[in-house]
Amino acid sequence: MLVNQNLPEIKVSFTPKSPVADRHKITCSCDAIAILREIWNKETIHLYKEFYVIFLDRKNGIIGYRIMNIGSNCGTVVDIKLMFSIALQCNSSGIILSHNHPSGNTRPSRQDDELTKKIHNGAKLFELQLLDHIILTNDSHFSYMDEGRIV
Q1: Is residue 108 part of a domain?
Q2: Is 0.70 topped by the overall pTM?
């Protein structure tokens, strides 16, 4: 079989901005919430939904984060395949999901629960650990891990 020399080569790269030893560690939901509040746009948290993912190394050091989607005031869509692709490209061992509820109600919806379960199950296939799914509002939060909803 001849290989066509015009086939494009796929290249994947990731360049961290700081040494591994300098990565901020996540030890509990409070650490993750503090980081999320630092990076979240405070001017829009109450206007429309956004979905963030924090990517972590084996020692729960933050590799980086990515805004996966910006939606409307009542919903957002997450491209799970793209999220896992990013996690694998940066050699992540764990992920923390987060989205906001502009309504101010931190209670997870049925769709939130279904998405969390779907991502949790998918993460197992890639030997990734889903550490938490945090719902933020302007002045409150909900942690799936703290509430025992991620096993």
Answers
A1: no
A2: yes
